[in-house]
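Supplementary Note 3. Input sequence used for the single-chain structure prediction.
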Amino acid sequence: MNYTDQVRQYLEYCEFRKELDGNTIKAYRIDLRQFFECTCEDIPGKDKIEDYIMQLHKKYKQKTIKRKIASIKAYYNYLEEQEIIDDNPFRKIKVKFKETTTLPRIIPREEIEQLLNYVYVHENKSNDHAYRYWLRDVAVIELLFATGARVYEISNIKKENVNLNTGLIKIMGKGSKERYIQIASPEILVMLKKYYDYNASEIENSGFFFVNSRGCRYTEQSIRLMLKRYVKLAGIERNITPHMFRHSFATYLIEEGVDISCVQQMLGHSSIKTTQIYIHVAAKRQAEILRERHPRNRMHICRAA
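The predicted structure, written as discrete structure tokens, is reproduced below.
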């Protein structure tokens, strides 16, 4: 059996047996294709793998290298479990990473307010279709900030997972792990209800809560393009992505004193270590506030000669 058939079986195993999410399987497919295109063998050995890892270090950043190696390692573990190979070369390969911490980019509060003000002021009632899609886009932007959900989680919210009476939304995260987020703002809940009322038939037919003009799921890419358009129209020069709302959601909650374990739960992080990076962002912001606002920095103190 050549590597293409073997990889196909492995990806099916990941999808149906391990029940991994679509994004993970997509990343595995890309990483394995690159690996086999470079090594040109059905089951490359230790030397070939080490040469490939060396090439990765020349092309990619540490985070990407780490993911690509993890993809290949998971594949070899599968080959060993299925007794396709007797000796797993990764047992003899040691890989060290220089861990670099990149603080997540957040959106300044004033720019979030500027964006929301723009979308509400420019309510589009030119025709019924335009109004329906304006309601949808405002609802999506509000949910990005209100829930801290990933863009694919917003895109894939099912109709039955939104309770418009209680404001409770079920989010399906990585690895099909579910979590619940409460919409605590009455204004946002009103917007969600308006959006649903105007798009009820399309929502019922598609099964997804957010739909496009064809009555299908409102895709991640469409959400990104929509947000980019509104950011530009609002006169904001910063490049704002949907994921920056997630970072902002977490950072501002921690700045307001919310316990980190609560933020972890709301973000759907399996490990609190992943959430702790937002403490550093909040601390950085705290230092900026103290430098700019602390009255001691504006006092003129006479010193003895």
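The two ends are 86 Å apart (CA to CA). The CA atoms of residues 44 and 168 lie 49 Å apart.
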